[in-house]
Amino acid sequence: MSGDALDDLAAKLFDAARREQPPHAAIERAVAAAAEARRTHAMVAMPDRRLRKWSIGLALAASAALAWWRLSPRSEPAVAIVAEPPSAESPKPHAPEAEPAPSTQQRASAPSAAPFTTRAPAPRSAAPAAPPAPATLGDELEALKRAETALRGGDAGGALAALDRYDRVLKGTKLRAEAALLRMDALKRSGHAEQAAELAQRFVKENPGSPLVDRARSFLPPAAPP
Amino acid sequence: MAAQDPSLSLTESHPPPSSGAAQPSDDDFNAWVRAQYGFVWRVLRGMGLGHADAEDAAQQVFVVAARKLEQIDAARERSFLYGVALRVAHNTKRGLRRQRRAPEEPGDEPSPDSDAPDRKAERAQARQLLQELLEQVPEKLRRVLILAEIEQMEAPQIAALENVPVGTVASRLRLGRARLRELLEAARHRNPFAESS
Q1: Complete DSSP assignment for B35-91
Q2: What is the pTM of this model?
Q3: Quick check: A17 contacting B, CB < 8 Å?
Q4: pLDDT in tens, B17-59
Q5: Taking a contact as any Cβ pair under 8 Å apart, which residues of chain B between 164 and 193 contact chain A?
Protein backbone atom coordinates (compact mmCIF):
# COMPACT_ATOMS: atom_id res chain seq x y z
CA MET A 1 0.00 0.00 0.00
CA SER A 2 1.33 3.43 -0.83
CA GLY A 3 2.03 6.07 1.78
CA ASP A 4 5.13 7.00 3.66
CA ALA A 5 6.91 3.68 3.41
CA LEU A 6 8.53 2.20 6.45
CA ASP A 7 12.23 1.59 6.63
CA ASP A 8 14.03 -1.69 6.27
CA LEU A 9 13.89 -2.63 9.95
CA ALA A 10 10.16 -2.02 10.16
CA ALA A 11 9.67 -4.06 7.03
CA LYS A 12 11.62 -6.93 8.58
CA LEU A 13 9.60 -6.76 11.78
CA PHE A 14 6.36 -6.94 9.86
CA ASP A 15 7.74 -9.72 7.72
CA ALA A 16 8.49 -11.73 10.85
CA ALA A 17 4.93 -11.16 12.08
CA ARG A 18 3.55 -12.17 8.71
CA ARG A 19 5.50 -15.40 8.71
CA GLU A 20 4.17 -16.42 12.07
CA GLN A 21 1.85 -19.35 11.60
CA PRO A 22 -0.54 -20.54 14.27
CA PRO A 23 0.14 -24.01 15.63
CA HIS A 24 -1.66 -26.72 13.74
CA ALA A 25 -2.99 -28.20 16.98
CA ALA A 26 -4.52 -24.84 17.90
CA ILE A 27 -6.33 -24.68 14.57
CA GLU A 28 -7.73 -28.14 15.04
CA ARG A 29 -8.83 -27.33 18.56
CA ALA A 30 -10.69 -24.28 17.26
CA VAL A 31 -12.25 -26.36 14.49
CA ALA A 32 -13.47 -28.90 17.04
CA ALA A 33 -14.78 -26.23 19.43
CA ALA A 34 -16.57 -24.35 16.65
CA ALA A 35 -18.09 -27.56 15.29
CA GLU A 36 -19.34 -28.45 18.77
CA ALA A 37 -20.77 -24.95 19.23
CA ARG A 38 -22.49 -25.27 15.89
CA ARG A 39 -24.09 -28.57 16.84
CA THR A 40 -25.20 -27.30 20.23
CA HIS A 41 -26.58 -24.12 18.75
CA ALA A 42 -28.52 -26.04 16.13
CA MET A 43 -30.17 -28.09 18.87
CA VAL A 44 -31.05 -25.03 20.91
CA ALA A 45 -32.09 -22.92 17.95
CA MET A 46 -34.61 -25.40 16.66
CA PRO A 47 -37.18 -24.90 19.41
CA ASP A 48 -36.38 -21.20 19.25
CA ARG A 49 -37.47 -21.11 15.67
CA ARG A 50 -40.70 -22.80 16.66
CA LEU A 51 -41.18 -20.28 19.42
CA ARG A 52 -40.55 -17.46 16.98
CA LYS A 53 -43.37 -18.86 14.86
CA TRP A 54 -45.54 -18.90 17.95
CA SER A 55 -44.63 -15.33 18.75
CA ILE A 56 -45.75 -14.26 15.32
CA GLY A 57 -48.95 -16.29 15.66
CA LEU A 58 -49.56 -14.86 19.09
CA ALA A 59 -48.99 -11.32 17.89
CA LEU A 60 -51.29 -11.85 14.92
CA ALA A 61 -53.99 -13.37 17.09
CA ALA A 62 -53.68 -10.53 19.56
CA SER A 63 -53.86 -7.91 16.81
CA ALA A 64 -56.91 -9.57 15.31
CA ALA A 65 -58.62 -9.81 18.68
CA LEU A 66 -57.81 -6.21 19.46
CA ALA A 67 -59.12 -5.04 16.12
CA TRP A 68 -62.27 -7.10 16.57
CA TRP A 69 -62.74 -5.70 20.04
CA ARG A 70 -62.40 -2.14 18.84
CA LEU A 71 -64.64 -2.53 15.82
CA SER A 72 -67.34 -4.76 17.22
CA PRO A 73 -70.66 -3.10 18.16
CA ARG A 74 -71.62 -2.98 21.81
CA SER A 75 -74.43 -5.49 21.49
CA GLU A 76 -71.99 -8.26 20.54
CA PRO A 77 -70.55 -10.55 23.16
CA ALA A 78 -67.46 -8.37 23.19
CA VAL A 79 -69.45 -6.10 25.42
CA ALA A 80 -68.34 -8.33 28.24
CA ILE A 81 -64.91 -6.93 27.78
CA VAL A 82 -65.91 -3.33 27.26
CA ALA A 83 -68.16 -3.36 30.25
CA GLU A 84 -65.29 -3.75 32.67
CA PRO A 85 -65.11 -1.24 35.43
CA PRO A 86 -62.65 1.44 34.51
CA SER A 87 -59.17 0.67 35.61
CA ALA A 88 -56.73 3.38 36.48
CA GLU A 89 -53.99 1.35 34.88
CA SER A 90 -55.53 0.89 31.47
CA PRO A 91 -58.32 3.21 30.52
CA LYS A 92 -60.76 1.56 28.14
CA PRO A 93 -61.59 3.30 24.90
CA HIS A 94 -65.25 2.24 25.23
CA ALA A 95 -65.58 2.83 28.94
CA PRO A 96 -69.22 2.67 29.83
CA GLU A 97 -69.21 5.61 32.19
CA ALA A 98 -70.25 8.04 29.44
CA GLU A 99 -73.44 6.09 28.82
CA PRO A 100 -74.03 3.84 31.78
CA ALA A 101 -77.64 2.85 31.20
CA PRO A 102 -77.36 1.21 27.77
CA SER A 103 -74.22 -0.49 28.88
CA THR A 104 -75.89 -2.14 31.84
CA GLN A 105 -78.75 -3.20 29.66
CA GLN A 106 -76.43 -4.72 27.15
CA ARG A 107 -74.64 -6.66 29.82
CA ALA A 108 -77.88 -8.09 31.04
CA SER A 109 -78.94 -9.12 27.56
CA ALA A 110 -75.68 -10.61 26.44
CA PRO A 111 -75.50 -14.31 27.36
CA SER A 112 -71.74 -14.60 27.19
CA ALA A 113 -71.42 -11.63 29.49
CA ALA A 114 -72.95 -13.56 32.37
CA PRO A 115 -69.76 -13.98 34.39
CA PHE A 116 -69.25 -10.28 34.29
CA THR A 117 -72.79 -9.18 35.09
CA THR A 118 -72.35 -9.89 38.75
CA ARG A 119 -69.89 -7.07 38.87
CA ALA A 120 -71.66 -3.80 39.22
CA PRO A 121 -70.27 -0.95 37.19
CA ALA A 122 -68.06 0.57 39.79
CA PRO A 123 -68.21 4.27 40.28
CA ARG A 124 -64.82 5.96 40.33
CA SER A 125 -64.94 6.62 44.04
CA ALA A 126 -65.53 2.94 44.81
CA ALA A 127 -62.72 1.70 42.62
CA PRO A 128 -60.35 0.55 45.40
CA ALA A 129 -63.00 -1.68 46.94
CA ALA A 130 -64.19 -3.11 43.63
CA PRO A 131 -63.56 -6.76 42.86
CA PRO A 132 -60.75 -7.46 40.41
CA ALA A 133 -61.54 -6.54 36.86
CA PRO A 134 -61.79 -9.29 34.28
CA ALA A 135 -58.68 -9.79 32.25
CA THR A 136 -58.15 -7.43 29.40
CA LEU A 137 -56.57 -8.50 26.19
CA GLY A 138 -53.41 -6.75 27.34
CA ASP A 139 -53.43 -8.78 30.57
CA GLU A 140 -53.84 -11.99 28.68
CA LEU A 141 -51.18 -11.09 26.21
CA GLU A 142 -48.80 -10.19 28.99
CA ALA A 143 -49.39 -13.49 30.77
CA LEU A 144 -48.75 -15.47 27.61
CA LYS A 145 -45.68 -13.44 26.81
CA ARG A 146 -44.37 -14.23 30.27
CA ALA A 147 -44.98 -17.91 29.64
CA GLU A 148 -43.33 -17.72 26.28
CA THR A 149 -40.29 -15.89 27.67
CA ALA A 150 -39.92 -18.51 30.38
CA LEU A 151 -40.18 -21.26 27.81
CA ARG A 152 -37.62 -19.59 25.59
CA GLY A 153 -35.30 -19.36 28.56
CA GLY A 154 -35.65 -23.07 29.21
CA ASP A 155 -37.85 -22.56 32.28
CA ALA A 156 -40.76 -24.85 31.48
CA GLY A 157 -41.91 -24.73 35.11
CA GLY A 158 -42.06 -20.95 35.01
CA ALA A 159 -44.01 -21.15 31.77
CA LEU A 160 -46.53 -23.51 33.34
CA ALA A 161 -46.89 -21.21 36.34
CA ALA A 162 -47.59 -18.28 34.01
CA LEU A 163 -50.12 -20.39 32.12
CA ASP A 164 -51.79 -21.41 35.38
CA ARG A 165 -52.12 -17.76 36.21
CA TYR A 166 -53.63 -17.20 32.79
CA ASP A 167 -56.21 -19.93 33.38
CA ARG A 168 -57.00 -19.58 37.07
CA VAL A 169 -56.33 -15.98 37.96
CA LEU A 170 -56.97 -14.14 34.75
CA LYS A 171 -59.51 -16.70 33.55
CA GLY A 172 -58.24 -15.88 30.13
CA THR A 173 -60.51 -16.52 27.20
CA LYS A 174 -59.37 -14.37 24.31
CA LEU A 175 -56.11 -16.15 23.68
CA ARG A 176 -57.14 -19.53 25.04
CA ALA A 177 -55.98 -21.43 21.98
CA GLU A 178 -52.52 -19.87 22.09
CA ALA A 179 -52.34 -20.58 25.80
CA ALA A 180 -53.22 -24.21 25.18
CA LEU A 181 -50.46 -24.55 22.60
CA LEU A 182 -47.92 -22.98 24.93
CA ARG A 183 -49.02 -25.33 27.69
CA MET A 184 -48.50 -28.32 25.42
CA ASP A 185 -44.97 -27.18 24.68
CA ALA A 186 -44.21 -26.42 28.32
CA LEU A 187 -45.55 -29.81 29.41
CA LYS A 188 -43.53 -31.60 26.81
CA ARG A 189 -40.36 -29.76 27.72
CA SER A 190 -40.86 -30.43 31.40
CA GLY A 191 -40.98 -34.14 30.71
CA HIS A 192 -44.74 -34.55 30.61
CA ALA A 193 -45.15 -35.49 26.99
CA GLU A 194 -48.16 -37.68 27.75
CA GLN A 195 -50.06 -34.81 29.33
CA ALA A 196 -49.06 -32.62 26.40
CA ALA A 197 -50.43 -35.25 24.03
CA GLU A 198 -53.68 -35.52 26.00
CA LEU A 199 -54.12 -31.79 25.84
CA ALA A 200 -53.29 -31.80 22.15
CA GLN A 201 -55.81 -34.52 21.48
CA ARG A 202 -58.53 -32.59 23.29
CA PHE A 203 -57.59 -29.43 21.44
CA VAL A 204 -57.74 -31.15 18.05
CA LYS A 205 -61.10 -32.68 18.91
CA GLU A 206 -62.62 -29.44 20.16
CA ASN A 207 -61.07 -27.12 17.58
CA PRO A 208 -60.99 -29.04 14.31
CA GLY A 209 -61.15 -25.84 12.27
CA SER A 210 -58.56 -23.90 14.25
CA PRO A 211 -55.52 -22.64 12.37
CA LEU A 212 -53.48 -23.93 15.30
CA VAL A 213 -54.67 -27.49 14.94
CA ASP A 214 -51.62 -28.60 12.98
CA ARG A 215 -49.32 -27.32 15.65
CA ALA A 216 -51.38 -29.11 18.25
CA ARG A 217 -51.06 -32.32 16.25
CA SER A 218 -47.29 -32.01 16.43
CA PHE A 219 -47.57 -32.84 20.14
CA LEU A 220 -49.36 -36.10 19.46
CA PRO A 221 -47.31 -39.27 19.34
CA PRO A 222 -46.68 -40.31 15.73
CA ALA A 223 -48.73 -43.48 15.98
CA ALA A 224 -51.73 -41.91 17.66
CA PRO A 225 -54.43 -40.62 15.37
CA PRO A 226 -55.56 -37.09 16.09
CA MET B 1 -1.00 -6.54 -3.26
CA ALA B 2 -1.96 -10.14 -3.15
CA ALA B 3 -1.71 -12.06 0.02
CA GLN B 4 0.16 -15.33 -0.07
CA ASP B 5 -1.78 -17.05 2.64
CA PRO B 6 -5.04 -18.31 1.18
CA SER B 7 -6.83 -17.21 4.30
CA LEU B 8 -5.88 -13.63 3.55
CA SER B 9 -7.87 -13.42 0.40
CA LEU B 10 -11.27 -11.89 0.66
CA THR B 11 -12.45 -13.84 -2.35
CA GLU B 12 -11.12 -17.22 -1.62
CA SER B 13 -11.78 -20.73 -2.68
CA HIS B 14 -13.53 -21.64 0.56
CA PRO B 15 -17.02 -20.24 0.33
CA PRO B 16 -18.24 -18.48 3.43
CA PRO B 17 -20.42 -20.87 5.38
CA SER B 18 -23.52 -18.76 5.07
CA SER B 19 -23.22 -18.10 1.37
CA GLY B 20 -26.03 -20.42 0.41
CA ALA B 21 -29.56 -20.79 1.63
CA ALA B 22 -28.78 -24.27 2.94
CA GLN B 23 -26.57 -24.79 5.94
CA PRO B 24 -23.01 -25.72 5.01
CA SER B 25 -21.88 -29.25 5.60
CA ASP B 26 -19.62 -29.98 8.55
CA ASP B 27 -16.69 -30.40 6.20
CA ASP B 28 -17.31 -27.06 4.51
CA PHE B 29 -17.64 -25.34 7.83
CA ASN B 30 -14.46 -26.91 9.20
CA ALA B 31 -12.57 -25.98 6.04
CA TRP B 32 -13.79 -22.42 6.41
CA VAL B 33 -12.55 -22.25 10.02
CA ARG B 34 -9.14 -23.57 8.96
CA ALA B 35 -8.94 -21.08 6.12
CA GLN B 36 -9.83 -18.10 8.28
CA TYR B 37 -7.85 -19.07 11.34
CA GLY B 38 -4.59 -17.48 10.22
CA PHE B 39 -6.22 -14.10 9.69
CA VAL B 40 -7.93 -14.15 13.06
CA TRP B 41 -4.77 -15.35 14.78
CA ARG B 42 -2.61 -12.59 13.32
CA VAL B 43 -5.16 -9.91 14.19
CA LEU B 44 -5.21 -11.18 17.77
CA ARG B 45 -1.43 -11.30 17.92
CA GLY B 46 -1.23 -7.83 16.41
CA MET B 47 -3.57 -6.62 19.10
CA GLY B 48 -0.99 -7.70 21.63
CA LEU B 49 -2.06 -11.17 22.73
CA GLY B 50 0.56 -13.80 23.46
CA HIS B 51 0.50 -17.20 21.79
CA ALA B 52 -1.61 -19.02 24.35
CA ASP B 53 -4.02 -16.10 24.78
CA ALA B 54 -4.32 -15.70 21.00
CA GLU B 55 -5.07 -19.39 20.74
CA ASP B 56 -7.84 -19.19 23.33
CA ALA B 57 -9.18 -15.99 21.83
CA ALA B 58 -9.19 -17.39 18.29
CA GLN B 59 -11.15 -20.36 19.54
CA GLN B 60 -13.68 -17.99 21.10
CA VAL B 61 -13.98 -16.09 17.83
CA PHE B 62 -14.88 -19.22 15.92
CA VAL B 63 -17.27 -20.43 18.58
CA VAL B 64 -19.09 -17.10 18.25
CA ALA B 65 -18.99 -17.43 14.47
CA ALA B 66 -20.46 -20.93 14.69
CA ARG B 67 -23.36 -19.69 16.79
CA LYS B 68 -24.05 -16.68 14.58
CA LEU B 69 -23.60 -18.55 11.37
CA GLU B 70 -27.09 -17.78 10.15
CA GLN B 71 -26.62 -14.07 10.71
CA ILE B 72 -23.30 -13.69 8.94
CA ASP B 73 -23.74 -11.99 5.62
CA ALA B 74 -21.71 -13.95 3.10
CA ALA B 75 -20.16 -10.78 1.73
CA ARG B 76 -19.09 -9.60 5.16
CA GLU B 77 -17.81 -12.75 6.80
CA ARG B 78 -14.25 -11.41 7.05
CA SER B 79 -15.58 -8.20 8.50
CA PHE B 80 -17.61 -10.18 11.03
CA LEU B 81 -14.60 -12.22 12.11
CA TYR B 82 -12.49 -9.09 12.38
CA GLY B 83 -15.07 -7.36 14.56
CA VAL B 84 -15.43 -10.37 16.85
CA ALA B 85 -11.64 -10.79 17.03
CA LEU B 86 -11.21 -7.18 18.14
CA ARG B 87 -13.87 -7.54 20.82
CA VAL B 88 -12.43 -10.80 22.09
CA ALA B 89 -8.93 -9.27 22.09
CA HIS B 90 -10.17 -6.36 24.19
CA ASN B 91 -11.94 -8.65 26.62
CA THR B 92 -8.92 -10.90 26.93
CA LYS B 93 -6.61 -7.98 27.62
CA ARG B 94 -9.03 -6.57 30.15
CA GLY B 95 -9.11 -9.96 31.85
CA LEU B 96 -5.34 -10.13 31.90
CA ARG B 97 -5.12 -6.69 33.46
CA ARG B 98 -7.64 -7.70 36.07
CA GLN B 99 -5.66 -10.81 36.89
CA ARG B 100 -2.48 -8.74 36.75
CA ARG B 101 -1.05 -11.52 34.66
CA ALA B 102 2.25 -10.82 33.02
CA PRO B 103 2.31 -11.01 29.25
CA GLU B 104 3.71 -14.22 27.89
CA GLU B 105 7.38 -14.47 27.39
CA PRO B 106 8.53 -14.54 23.80
CA GLY B 107 10.21 -17.56 22.39
CA ASP B 108 7.48 -20.18 22.52
CA GLU B 109 7.57 -20.39 18.79
CA PRO B 110 4.19 -21.79 17.86
CA SER B 111 4.96 -23.71 14.74
CA PRO B 112 8.03 -25.49 13.51
CA ASP B 113 9.61 -24.19 10.36
CA SER B 114 12.66 -25.06 8.39
CA ASP B 115 14.69 -22.07 9.54
CA ALA B 116 17.81 -22.48 11.57
CA PRO B 117 17.34 -22.01 15.30
CA ASP B 118 19.16 -18.67 15.34
CA ARG B 119 16.92 -17.42 12.59
CA LYS B 120 13.86 -18.52 14.51
CA ALA B 121 15.09 -16.76 17.61
CA GLU B 122 15.69 -13.65 15.55
CA ARG B 123 12.15 -13.72 14.26
CA ALA B 124 10.71 -14.35 17.69
CA GLN B 125 12.59 -11.31 18.98
CA ALA B 126 11.38 -9.30 16.01
CA ARG B 127 7.78 -10.23 16.72
CA GLN B 128 8.19 -9.39 20.36
CA LEU B 129 9.71 -6.02 19.54
CA LEU B 130 6.96 -5.29 17.02
CA GLN B 131 4.28 -6.16 19.56
CA GLU B 132 5.83 -3.85 22.10
CA LEU B 133 6.02 -1.03 19.60
CA LEU B 134 2.50 -1.57 18.32
CA GLU B 135 1.20 -1.45 21.86
CA GLN B 136 2.38 2.14 21.96
CA VAL B 137 0.59 3.11 18.77
CA PRO B 138 -2.98 4.38 19.27
CA GLU B 139 -5.38 1.52 18.60
CA LYS B 140 -7.13 3.01 15.58
CA LEU B 141 -3.79 3.51 13.88
CA ARG B 142 -2.50 0.14 15.06
CA ARG B 143 -5.40 -1.73 13.53
CA VAL B 144 -4.79 -0.15 10.15
CA LEU B 145 -1.08 -0.91 10.42
CA ILE B 146 -1.81 -4.57 11.18
CA LEU B 147 -4.16 -4.91 8.23
CA ALA B 148 -1.90 -3.05 5.82
CA GLU B 149 1.52 -4.27 6.87
CA ILE B 150 0.88 -7.76 8.20
CA GLU B 151 -2.22 -8.77 6.27
CA GLN B 152 -1.10 -6.70 3.28
CA MET B 153 -4.57 -5.50 2.50
CA GLU B 154 -5.38 -2.62 0.23
CA ALA B 155 -7.05 0.53 1.52
CA PRO B 156 -10.55 -0.33 0.24
CA GLN B 157 -10.42 -3.72 1.96
CA ILE B 158 -9.29 -2.10 5.19
CA ALA B 159 -11.94 0.56 4.84
CA ALA B 160 -14.57 -2.17 4.53
CA LEU B 161 -13.33 -3.96 7.64
CA GLU B 162 -12.96 -0.81 9.67
CA ASN B 163 -16.16 0.65 8.31
CA VAL B 164 -14.52 3.98 7.57
CA PRO B 165 -13.89 5.87 4.31
CA VAL B 166 -10.81 4.99 2.29
CA GLY B 167 -9.42 8.48 2.94
CA THR B 168 -9.55 7.81 6.67
CA VAL B 169 -7.63 4.59 6.16
CA ALA B 170 -4.92 6.42 4.21
CA SER B 171 -4.71 9.08 6.87
CA ARG B 172 -4.53 6.58 9.72
CA LEU B 173 -1.92 4.57 7.90
CA ARG B 174 0.23 7.63 7.39
CA LEU B 175 -0.05 8.61 11.03
CA GLY B 176 0.51 5.04 12.20
CA ARG B 177 3.66 4.66 10.15
CA ALA B 178 4.96 8.00 11.38
CA ARG B 179 4.38 6.95 14.98
CA LEU B 180 5.99 3.58 14.41
CA ARG B 181 9.00 5.24 12.81
CA GLU B 182 9.49 7.38 15.91
CA LEU B 183 9.21 4.38 18.16
CA LEU B 184 11.64 2.40 16.03
CA GLU B 185 14.19 5.18 16.20
CA ALA B 186 14.09 4.97 19.95
CA ALA B 187 14.35 1.16 19.89
CA ARG B 188 17.01 0.78 17.23
CA HIS B 189 19.46 -0.62 19.75
CA ARG B 190 17.17 -3.63 20.06
CA ASN B 191 17.34 -4.44 16.37
CA PRO B 192 17.15 -8.24 16.34
CA PHE B 193 18.67 -8.33 12.85
CA ALA B 194 21.70 -6.21 13.76
CA GLU B 195 24.12 -9.13 13.74
CA SER B 196 22.88 -10.90 10.64
CA SER B 197 22.64 -7.79 8.46
Answers
A1: HHHHHHHHHHHHTT--HHHHHHHHHHHHHHHHHTGGG--GGGHHHHHHHHHHHHHHH
A2: 0.51
A3: yes
A4: 554 446 778 888 899 999 999 999 999 999 989 888 999 999 9
A5: 170, 173-174, 177-178, 180-181, 184, 188, 191, 193
